[in-house]
Design goal:
mainly alpha
Length: 143
């Protein structure tokens, strides 16, 4: 578990460092709307299919030394679905952003900044999806 936490933190900090190193502002990555869309849309999609108990079991299986037989299959399927839901949430968030940008089109000098900030949602979705893929791999490697 320690390796997962340290590696995941390193993954996020590496992405943040590269973004800031190239001139981005760290606070742009913490905008509430992209985090809400990626976190909630993908989370609620999982809960539409599996129960909270199943999701808790998926976390347990990802960090257990030896996951329980049939629960490991369910957990791997859940993490696979969650990964895809993260990507879908990124697309939905991006399209929402483009719609809002188009509706509220202001001065052309702000258009580039708006489109650039709109790319934060798919970036976060990819990072969340990567974490889901890691968790699925952890479960599958113990079967």
């Amino acid at each position: 578990m320690r390796r997962f936490i340290l590696s995941t933190l390193a993954l996020f900090f590496t992405a943040i460092f590269a973004f800031v190193f190239e001139g981005g502002e760290m606070m742009d990555l913490l905008l509430p709307s992209p985090l809400i869309i990626v976190g909630c849309v993908s989370g609620f999609a999982v809960l539409a299919v599996w129960s909270v108990k199943d999701w808790g079991g998926a976390w347990k299986d990802a960090f257990a030394k030896v996951p329980g037989g049939s629960s490991a299959t369910t957990s791997a399927a859940l993490w696979s679905f969650y990964e895809k839901a993260c990507y879908a949430a990124g697309v939905v968030g991006f399209l929402f952003g483009i719609t809002i940008i188009g509706k509220n089109s202001g001065p052309m000098d702000k258009l580039g900044e708006s489109i650039a900030l709109n790319c934060i949602t798919p970036i976060l979705a990819i990072l969340f999806g990567l974490v889901a893929r890691i968790l699925r791999a952890r479960v599958e490697s113990k079967r």
